[in-house]
Write a structure and sequence with these properties.
The chain has 165 residues and is of the alpha/beta class. It is 52% helix and 13% strand. It is built from 8 helices and 4 strands, in the order αααβααββαααβ. A 4-stranded mixed β-sheet has the order 3-2-1-4, sandwiched between helices. A hairpin with a 4-residue loop joins β2 and β3. It is globular, with a radius of gyration of 16 Å.
Length: 165
Amino acid sequence: MQIQRVLRHLILPHWWVGRVVPPPLLQSVERAVAASEAKHRGELRVVIECNLPLPALLADQSARARALELFAQLRVWDTEENSGVLIYLQLLDRRVEIVADRGINARLGQEFWDAVCRQMEAAFRAGDFAGGLQCALDTVTQALYEHFPATGENADELPNAPLFV
């Protein structure tokens, strides 16, 4: 456990960490997710987390482990066609992770998701938070469209609004 990391997460207020995510951006992400899901049978869930909870800090939980935990808690794995995708942003640690369900992951592989994460991180480093997130949503949308195009009834199984915690 890194003491400096724990202190950052405990001392910095949620509102300060989350200042890069104004309400209009959250609304824009929600609209982008809804538009994306109209094109394919996959399900997207965006989670933006400011500070990690104390148990995660004490366990020295990585961003990947936290993303996997949220993937399960939010039931992203529980989509009809196993085509759920979680985009997880850990603001304070400046980490991005994507967890994809086995249906879509079998077709694209972890290398694809890692490349999307690195693209987002590069945009974030350049100060383009909204652009980086939109680029990732566009890339994931295209991949889901190629492998799970919308046909007939297209149920919306997960909330479209990003979870901001």
